[in-house]
Amino acid sequence: MTKFIISSLFLATVTLFACNSPQQNNEADSTESVDSTAVDTIAYTRENYRLESQIETETTDSMGKTYYQVSYPKFDEGSLGELNHYLESRLSFIYPDTSSETIEEAAKEFISEYDNFQKEAVHSPFPWYTNTEVYVPINTPLYLGLEVRTDNYTGGAHGSYGVLFTNYDLNEKREIALNEIIAEGKMDSLTHIAETIFLENEKKARGEDTPISSFFFEDNTFSLNDNFLLKKDSLLFLYNIYEIKPYSDGITELTIPYTQIENLLTPKAKELISQHSKL
After folding, report:
1. How much is the pTM?
2. Which UniProt keywords apply (predicted)?
């Protein structure tokens, strides 16, 4: 299993952490998959950065300039500096074809690629953009659920977009892997339950039974990715565009209630999930 990589992005992305803008941390405008009743336990501010190209296009007046923009949470550097560094690396992972190591470098590289392209005989009549927003939909004493939402346009018929989840262990200061959530030897059982729910969802949406062969799963065999979020009552998986369906079908969310997989969860998973009841 591999993390989702946005298909049409080929440029660097990690952005300059600047321009503090403190605000309430309820993340109310995040994805619908977020627990709306969650209460933050770790304070942070939101920061925003934007870098624009100075090169004009034929449609600059109506569509704006080419830009690189990011909005993200900034945690206390003293106690949670490692979390900030992790988040920066997480942002950079979305755009893998890059030599950039900092957000500033990535922003400059994106703008430079556009500027150089506009000097070619065949160039873009439209401005490009990269827009990334990072939310904290899950905030408990033991772990954070992070959600990176990104969309971009670098030419062509349409842009690209996606959502990437991360679950961060605050004590061990690292990402939580799926094999820490599901007990050893139980992954096949999880996959079977997930496939049943997936097919039921598709039947409701399409009005008829749809075989697994209708999707983009390798070897026509259902599989889970590791783009997941530990919610209050369920384990949420998310497949991005092109991952298992065509662009026109958008993203696919797959929610697996804990009540259906309680016997598959590790003690650590149960401890993490129990934090929601203490908020």
Report:
1. 0.82
2. Signal
Residues 128 and 195 in one domain: no
Residue 231: inside a domain, yes or no? yes
**List of residues 6+ apart from 74 with CB closer than 8 A:** 17, 20, 44, 45, 46, 47, 84
For tokens 């958008």, the residue is: 250
- Domain shared by 155 and 198, yes or no: no
Domain that holds residue 56: 20-173
Per-residue pLDDT of the chain (279 residues; tens, 9 = 90+): 433 333 333 233 332 223 333 333 445 444 444 443 444 579 999 999 899 999 887 765 556 889 999 999 999 988 899 999 888 776 755 554 556 666 777 788 889 999 999 999 888 888 999 999 999 999 999 999 999 999 999 988 889 999 999 999 999 999 999 999 999 999 999 999 999 999 999 999 999 999 999 999 999 999 999 999 999 999 999 999 999 999 999 999 999 999 999 999 999 999 999 999 877
Nearest to 174 by CA among 43, 82, 258: 82
Confirm whether 6 is domain-assigned: no
State how far the alpha carbon of 157 is from the alpha carbons of 9, 154, 201, in Å. 14, 10, 30
Q: How far is 108 from 102, CA to CA, in rounded Å?
A: 10
Phi, psi angles (nearest 5°) of residue 204: -65, -40
Distance CA 141, CA 71 (A): 24
CA distance 243 to 88: 24
Closest C-alpha to 235, from 203, 199, 278, 190: 190
Count the Cβ atoms, other than its own, within 10 Å of residue 86.
Answer: 18
| Contact by Cβ (8 Å): 84, 74 | yes
CATH number at residue 68: 3.30.565.40
Q: Does 41 lie in the same domain as 151?
A: yes
